[in-house]
Amino acid sequence: MSANAVKSRDFHRLSSVWNIIFNCIAGGFAILCIFPFLFVVLISFTDEGSLARDGYQLIPAKWSLEAYKYVFGSGDTLLRSYGVTIAVTVIGTLVSLLLISLYAYAISRKSFKYRNFFAFFAFFTMLFNGGLVPTYIIVTQLLGLKDSIWALVLPLAVNAFYIMILRTFYITSVPDALIESAKIDGAGEFRTFLRIVLPLSLPGLATIGLFSTLGYWNDWFNALLYIDNPNLVPLQSMLMRIETSMQFIMQNSQNSSLSLEAMRSMPQDTSRMAMVVLATGPIIFAYPFFQRYFIQGLTIGAVKE
Asked: Residue 243: CB partners within 8 Å, gap ≥ 6?
C-alpha cells in the first residue's frame, strides 16, 4: 500500500473521542431545530391564566386543553377544512408531479426541436408574471373555477423553478444510452419515460413532490381569492379566519361588556400556538416518506470529483 493511501485512510479515520464529540455537536444542532416546535406544543397545552401570570415556561405550572377546545369549537367545520386540505394536497401533488415531470423531460431531450423555446418560456415566468388581477379574471371568468376545488389545485400545479430542477436531474442522472437503447428496442416516448426514466428519477421526483406538498398544505391565499363556499375552505384559511375573529373580539372588547367577558374567557396566546400545531403537525409526518430520496434530490447537479 502506498504512503498516500495510508495517509488518506488515516485522515478519514476518526478516533472514538472525536466521533463522540461530532455526534454531540450534530445532536445539539438537531435539538436546536426541534426544540422550537416542541416548545410551541407545550405552550398550546398551557393554561392561559398561568401563561399570563408566569410567562413562557418549559414545564407549565398548569396544563389545559382550553386552546384546542376553543379551536375545535367550530364543530365539524375544522374537520371539514382538514379534509379539503388533504384532498387538495394529494390531488395537487399528483397533478403537479405529472405536469412538471413531463414538461421537464421534454425540454431535457436534445432531440426535441423546440426544447430551447419551452425552456425559455418556463424560465421567463420566473422573472415576470401577468399580475394578480389578470390571474383572477382568468381563473374566475375565463376558466370558471371560482368556488371549485380546482381553483386551489391548478394555480400551483406548475412551478417553473421545479421544472428547471427536474430538467437538470434528467440531464445529469439519466444516461442518453439507456433512452437510445429503448428506442432501438421499439419503445415509444411514453413507454421509455414510464419504464426507464421514472424509476431512475425517484430522488428528483420525491424532492419536487415534497416541495409541492408543502406548497399546497400551506396555501391560504388562493382560498382567500377564489373560495366563498364554507364547505371548500381549507385548513390554513380556516385558521386564519379564527385568528381574525379573535382579533376582532379583542379590538372591540371595550365597546361591549359581552365582548369583554368573551375576551377574558378566550385563550388568546395558547390558541395561537394550538393553531400552529394543527397546521404544521400533520405535514411533519409526510417527511419520512420522502426522506429516503430527499438528500439525494437536494444534490441535483452537484459536481463529482
From this structure: 272, 275
